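Changelog-adjacent note: as of this version, every example in the card shows the full chain rather than a window. The one below runs 567 residues end to end.
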Amino acid sequence: MFLEFKRQVSSALTDALASMGFQVDDLGLEPSQHADIASKVAFRLAAQAKQNPGELAGRIAEAIFLPDDSLIGKVSAVGPYINIDVSRSYIDDTVFMIRKEEGGFGGGFCQGRILLEHTSANPNGPLHVGHIRNSVIGDTLRRVLKRAGYDVETQYYVNDMGRQIAIVSWALSQFEFDTTRKPDHAIADVYIKANAELSAHPEKVSEIDSLMQQVEKGDEATIKSFDEAVAVAVNGIRETLLRMNVDHDSFPHESGFVRSGAVSRIVEEVKATGRTKVDGGALVVDLSDYGFEKSLVIQRSDGTSLYTTRDLAYHEWKGERADRMIDVLGADHKLISGQLKATLNAIGKREPEIVIFEFVSLPEGSMSTRRGKFISADELLDKIEEQAYAEVDKRRPEMPGDFKKDVARNVGIGAIRYDILKVSPEKSTVFDWKEALDFEKQGGPFIQYSHARACNILRKAQEDGLWDPPRPVDPSLLVEDTEVDLIKKMASFDSVIEASARELKPNSVAIYARELAESFNQFYRLVPVIGAEDEELRAVRLALVDCARIVLANALDTLGIAAPESM
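Full-length structure tokens:
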């Protein structure tokens, strides 16, 4: 709703300026503590108009024409700023729109096809705490972009032929595989043993090199052994992802681009630029004119390709199938992703948009699958759900076990996802068990509880015969400050989604969801709803509770967090 208000503001300002003989590209619209939106366009035009910015702002404000059905209400000049407030129609229409659109409210204003790659962890063990920030950011971006209106396909790019996978394949032929363990954890066990063995016996590293060469040459038996190892690990990883409400649409494999000839073709395309040279037997790309001192290696001295080479072919393929490509990558990929973009640019191919996130670390230090030093995502989820169950049992001891388990699972996942999403991707964070398990703070469980509270209010009102959802209501009766503030907060949902989709920052949705929950609880604290004596007023306030329920559910869904009806 706010996007339409902003559009009308832009149109009204542009028309007013045109009537005064001015034309500007940037109207200087920005948030304001003193209005619903403000413009500082008078600053920009003061020199051209040869007039004091404050006087010019007054002239512009007077020149604005507003039709009767405008979402714009009061327009006033305050110093050099033009302050613009919403109209009563904006408030009333928001209530009608939420009740009409329900789950679709707040989106559907963008179009285009996007291929979004995230997680893509090496299949040499389970996901750990460090990985899941990628998964949660990527999945939430998918949800944001889909709500905005894009056709989004999420991909997990499977490394099925690199050195780590060669070690896994070799390990399965050397050590016993524990079939009683979750498959990705059992893969990690043999992978850790293999790395210890290779460190103790360096002469065995040649066996790994040989496996990599055989895969590149198309040896069917070796390829099969790699495929089987990867499939076992990926199945376990997918199980963990689904548990976190994360799903991928497709799983393209690196090897597919080698077998199709795409990797060989991309190497020849890069060679044709004249940027390549042989350095120490390896084929490297000179990207110094793009600001990279370090050359990019695209072929080893033994003729095998690297992850980067195959990644170039993968992005060429993606670029032909979508309007936009988005990659979610850890901070350790800053250099290589920059070189990837530069190389694609050099051969005239579409470049991906890169979302770089800083790592999640543990109080005890960094994580490494190779050394076996990590806390798995499964362990984290188990611990969170165990603690959540204890909280639910304490608060709702009378409820059956199945109810407690269901709420504990939803609240636990919500706590983890929110704890990750509340921090902007480019900021590093230390994962603190106590912080994540604190159900009193205003995080995921607080937002979920606010939704459950709205559901409970409506359920009680309906049981008492006070709430009839289809009944028409009169939003103009909602005049209390907390009522209007709540409606304005709900109306801004589309603006938050638009900004999050444009900036590729899901943390803004997390912040919005918390603020919306705070606004709803503030309204319910200060204004009687079921206890309202006037029947019409009670009906419209219950409708407002219903609107809050809808938008809270939409916000939670966008964050990948369940919206329980009872907690």
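Structural remarks: The domain at 118-361 is CATH 3.40.50.620 (Rossmann fold).
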